Amino acid sequence: MAKSVISExxxxxxxxxxxxxxxxxxxxxxxVKVLDNDDKRSFFSILAPRVVKVELTLxxxxxxxxxxxxxxxxxxxxxxxxxxxxxxxxxKNFLEELSxxxxxxxxxxxxxxxxYINVSIDGEDLGFLIGYRGETLYSMQSILSAIGGKGxxxxxRVILDIQGYKEKxxxxxxxxxxxxxxxxxxxxxxxxxxPMRAYERKIIHSKxxxxxxxxxxxxxxxxxxxxxxxxKK
Length: 233
Hints:
Radius of gyration: 23 Å
Strand content: 15-25%
Strand order of the largest sheet: 1-3-2
Low-confidence stretches: 40-48, 63-74
CATH topology of the largest domain: GMP Synthetase, Chain A, domain 3
Shape: elongated
Mean pLDDT: 83
Order of helices and strands: EHEEHHEEHHEHEHEE
Number of strands: 9
CATH superfamily of the largest domain: K homology (KH) domain
Number of domains: 3
CATH class of the largest domain: Alpha Beta
Largest sheet: 3 strands, antiparallel
Distance between the termini: 27 Å
Number of helices: 7
CATH architecture of the largest domain: 2-Layer Sandwich
Helix content: 40-55%
């Protein structure tokens, strides 16, 4: 049976948007049925709060991919305490040796999480460790993940940040998303962004998800996958 939800809003469009947020899909992925039309109001109800009800049903060809995605999320691995301790020891030994090759002193902090290890590095002039658009940083993150998992059965996931680069990058992308949205609304033309990593695309999608006038879609294959920002239909 097709998955569906009933949502409400002050207008038909608002009710649809509320339903799309629940299903976490775009309008093109659902069939819409208006249950209570906001145009059918009597004289005596004109002062009452306006409520429109709609039913959103996922199109059949979309149901299976969504179920598949939900299963993948449930398979997330929670690391055992001894695995985290071993991973942290591996990473610490590597960073100690790495720091010896730097002319300036670097500071690092390692924090354990349920399903990953968080590593932050700070110091002077570490731009070479970040690279263009974080390319070197992400390569180093992959290396640390491999080193952390040495001698451990489960796969170790390391999240690395250097000199707060990711936080700064996130703010830059959020500002970009707002500027592009304004351009799309003003010109009524879609804008195609440059290729981005999945982590960066997620920031753009999240920032514009609540915007009532624009929508975002991803096209292309990795590592050239990019976002298109366009007016909502």
